[in-house]
Amino acid sequence: MRSSSRFFLLVGFLLLxxxxxxxxxxxxxxxxxxxxxxxxxxxxNLELTDLALFTEARYTRHPSxxxxxxxxxxxxxxxxxxxxxxxxxxxxxxxx
Amino acid sequence: xxxFFRRQRYLVDHTLSSLRRHPGRNLALLIxxxxxxxxxxxxxxxxxxxxxxxxxLLRNSxxxxxxxxxxxxxxxxxxxxxxxxxxxxGVRKKQGRLWGYFYDPVVRAxxxxxxxxRDRPAPGSVVIGAGLARERRLGRGxxxxxxxxxxxxxxxxxxxxxxxxxxxVSSDLVLVAEEDFRAFFAIGPEWYTDISxxxxxxxxxxxxxxxxxxxxxxxRPILREEILRTYDxxxxxxxxxxxxxxxxSVLAFLIFAWDRAAGLSGEEKQEIxxxxxVGWETGDILRMKFLEGGIVSLVAFLAGYLxxxxxxxxxxxxxxxxxxxxxxxxxxxxxxxxxxxxxxxxTLFFFTVFPYTLATxxxxxxxxxxxxxxxxx
Amino acid sequence: MIELHQVNRIFNQGRPNEFQGLYDIDLDIPRGTITCxxxxxxxxxxxxxxxxxxxxxxxxxxITLDGDLLSDLPERFLAQVRRSTFGFVFQRFNLIRGLTVxxxxxxxxxxxxxxxRALRTRGQELLARFRLEDRExxxxxxxxxxxxxxxxxxxxxxxxxxxxxxxxxxxxxxxxLSRELMAIxxxxxxxxxxxxxxxxxxxxxxxxxxxxxxxxxxxRIISRGGPHGRP
Lengths: 96, 377, 231
Fold this sequence. Notes:
The complex is a heterotrimer.
Chain A: H1 3-46, H2 58-61, H3 84-87
Chain B: H1 2-21, H2 23-58, E1 64-70, E2 73-75, E3 77-78, H3 80-85, E4 91-104, E5 109-115, E6 125-128, H4 130-136, E7 143-147, E8 153-161, H5 167-170, E9 173-175, H6 178-185, E10 191-192, E11 194-199, H7 205-215, E12 219-223, H8 224-262, H9 266-277, H10 282-313, H11 321-325, H12 342-361, H13 365-368
Parallel strand pairs in B: 5-9, 6-8
Antiparallel strand pairs in B: 1-2, 1-11, 1-12, 3-10, 4-5, 4-11, 6-9, 7-8
Chain C: E1 2-11, E2 19-29, E3 34-38, H1 45-52, E4 60-65, E5 68-69, H2 75-85, E6 86-89, H3 101-106, H4 116-129, H5 145-157, E7 163-167, H6 175-190, E8 194-198, H7 202-205, E9 212-217, E10 220-225
Parallel strand pairs in C: 3-8, 3-9, 6-7, 7-8
Antiparallel strand pairs in C: 1-2, 1-4, 4-5, 9-10
């Protein structure tokens, strides 16, 4: 088989898989729909305001509720966003 | 037209033969390139997924949270403020919220302790998040002990564990009865953590917020829109910190590619001379070199992206979860859902494939236009 | 067929290392003949060959092919003429290492983009003609001198050129292989092709098939005629 034929087959295959990821994305999303709705209900019922992703510090756990004196506030009117988790060690007060 | 395509296909044939002449080197290049794209795409896909999840879930958050500020800091809000708000126009419902943090030295993790608006647990019992249950190895009916700031030990029975599918928002939650919360944190009945408000008409939210600020000048209303914007910014930030590190690697890689192409060996120069001598035009030479870069980067991009997709959405192990986790002990177990953004993928393609292809073609420009009779010498 | 009129070639013009390779060359190369350029190294044979074969342009003078002016064609058209009319056999063969024999042979045809199967068959026929069929997939660096020379000739013939240009074709061959080469040269002449060669090998220059012997020295033609002193 010609080199270019083999190459086109390979690229064609990869492109097919690439296209499949889009279809798969849609599939995973529709599958997650129910769970997402239930979690949304939980958010509403518990009146939650933040994701429980960054539990290492208080100002990272509820960034949307953080006050002006939370670390790394760069503007008095800006809400919290934080570089600390990736770059800095947690404050020693947490390690008791 | 046919001839045009045939000619390009012959160029592809020759380019592939050329690449095969140095199989080790070109394979290494392909692997490194694929790895780079894999890392970049993984970050983009993961952060994109979280961003969307945040947007979809948190649109169920309360329309307004009213927070009291003392000396610029978040402070407890008097229950009396609920009366002051009274029957403010546009406010359908208002309620005091009780929530706070607790640091558990046993597992060195932070919990969020809160009193739910509805379905409150009976005193002495708690409902806990699935992540917490996992970390503390607690099951239904078991006991969960916490020590308050005053040194008193509180023991709660686990009534229920929240659904693991909701861990992204509930992993570290401890839902308690109001009496237990107040006793544990020594907060009297005249205080709440903050007040949540439901506004009937979304278009009136800003107006209501303004009125609240006038009415209660030491408070700060936090709107749902602001909550959503926070998370938008959060994932862009975290994403860019990691990306900045990766861009450094990409740049190093590009410099290497340029260097490799620029230091065109005598052998490669001679090959170009021979091709021109047998009738190839400058355009053919350039297109061949372009294909060299293009073929490697196209395959690397597709392979890297596909691996990233599998890595983020199907594999249980996230290679850079430690970076995105930070130092959190309690990290929610959740499977990200794809939030496929064509623009983002296109941008990734453009910023990786394009520079690499240019980096291989530009240095050889001068050689490609040289006279073929040099090869006779 | 090919006419050169008052052709000069100056290298690195205007720079400190300026050097004139050819002085006022007048030469006619009739169709279907074999012209041999002889002379010591540095006499300008290679330079003249490259001008005849459109690998370079003269600094001044005219080169025509069947009456059409070649010397000031843009590079693109020159390349087209080069690939459809001329075939080249270089002194050091100049095969591309790492590629197979067949891949090397087919290279000059790629820009013409003929249909693949037909091209491949033509390449294989050429290999068979020169007894190289079993070398088709071999990488060229594994070939012997004689085989490499024949592969170079196959490559030169792939586009069925009218004119074949060979620079010191026997330089890397022993006398047996050199005589074999001249047999091929005579065959090609019988097919009606025109050949222009540069050589200082007596096996080449004194061959009976040579129609015109052109002697060069220091960039000039100092004598012309048939071999064995025939005019």
